[in-house]
Fold this sequence. Notes:
Layout: H1 2-17, H2 21-32, H3 36-64, H4 68-92, H5 108-120, H6 123-138, H7 144-164, H8 166-169, H9 176-198
Helix pairs in contact: 1-6, 1-7, 1-9, 2-3, 2-5, 2-7, 3-5, 3-6, 3-7, 4-6, 4-9, 6-7
Amino acid sequence: MLPIFTAGFALSFSLILAIGAQNAFVLRQGIRRLHVAPVVAVCSLSEAILIFAGVAGFGVIAEAAPWALEAMRWGGAAFLLAYGLRSLYGALNATDALEAEGTAEQSLTAALTTALVLTWANPHVYLDTVGLIGAVAATYGEGRWIFGTGALSASVVFFLILGYGARALAPVFARPKAWMWLDVIVGVTMLALAAKLALNL
Length: 201
């Protein structure tokens, strides 16, 4: 069970490491110390809904059409390969740094609304959680729920780190080189997971 949980954790953590609008928003909230707990809770709950929707949906497909597992496995491997190569390419061209300046005046409603919009209006979140995580989870059969739990745990841990470790991380990610090394880590992890999936290890 632990290897399955760890595999789900590693995949989800690698996916969510790629900085996007949602992650940058959580990080900025942490830097400003504004509504951190509610924002982290909303993002985590959203991830739970999306991840387990993917796990449940692809599980049903796998039971109805066992051949679909092979298609999911190779599709997932191809996606991870492309994602990994893109991250490594991004590392070679890293020029962006996090800009966290902004007004300190913000209502709880505004913060939660922004978190929801940045999560649910992002098409990549469906590809990553419902699509990719669901597809890879299906290859574990009955263990797919353990895989999904590992994936969700990674998301929750990452949001907590972003929200509550932001003050310490802010000076680091103000430098483009920090994003370069982050992309390198993400890229290598993705390629390793792609190989593992393709070889069915």
